[in-house]
Amino acid sequence: MPKEKSVLIGFLKKNKMKMTSQRDKILDFFLKWEKHLSPDEMYYELKKLYPRIGRATVYRTLKLLTKANIASQVELGDGASRFEHKYNHPHHYHLICSRCGKLIEFVSDKIDALKKNISKKHSFLPNNVRFEIFGLCKKCQKYRN
Ligand SMILES: [Zn+2]
Ligand SMILES: [Zn+2]
Ligand SMILES: [Zn+2]
User: Fold this and answer.
1) What local confidence, expressed as pLDDT, does residue 135 receive?
2) Residues with Cβ < 8 Å from 9, sequence gap 6 or more?
3) Does domain 90-145 have CATH number 3.30.1490.190?
4) How far apart are the CA of 100 and the centre of ligand 2, in A?
5) Structural domain boundaries of the chain?
6) What integer best gives the mean pLDDT of the chain?
């Protein structure tokens, strides 16, 4: 059993919810992909495997995974979002192409330190920091203007 599954079961139990076979399937599917998935992409792929799965279930389960700190949600700035693994993954930041939606990941000690310093200055306890740079990827810069 992947560690994420026991994390989810623990989280559900704490919130008086149960592990269902659909939640289980969605988690398994989610864990297989080492990339940023939109809920619709996931729904589309899951539907091929399990025709009875509902779109709302996929969305709700992704929200649960986010609350349980297994997934994290990346906002693309246009109301769209994607989900990626969070549990046991290094904290990172994103460059987001606003034309093709490409996501480039980077890690930065400087941003991590900034988060700590600013929070400390304001006696604030941070639990998450998001830092996204929007613009055009190398390929899309060709289409500027
Ligand atoms: Zn992963
Ligand atoms: Zn692009
Ligand atoms: Zn990422």
Assistant:
1) 94
2) 19
3) yes
4) 4
5) 1-87, 90-145
6) 92
What's the gap in Å between 74 CA and the centre of ligand 3? 7
Cβ-Cβ contacts under 8 Å for 122 (sequence gap 6 or more): none
**Ligand 2 center–CA 104 separation, angstroms:** 10
What pLDDT shows up at residue 145?
A: 61
What DSSP string describes 24-53? HHHHHHHHH--S-B-HHHHHHHHHHH-TT-
User: Which fold is adopted by the domain 1-87?
Assistant: Arc Repressor Mutant, subunit A (1.10.10)
Burial track 91-128 (b if 16+ CB lie within 10 A, e otherwise): eebbbbbeeeebbeeeeeeeeeeebeeeeeeeeeeeee
> Which residues have a Cβ under 8 Å from the Cβ of 5 and sit 6 or more positions away?
24, 27
Between strands 103-106 and 93-97, the pairing is antiparallel
Give the tens place of pLDDT for each residue, 109-121. Answer: 999 999 999 999 9
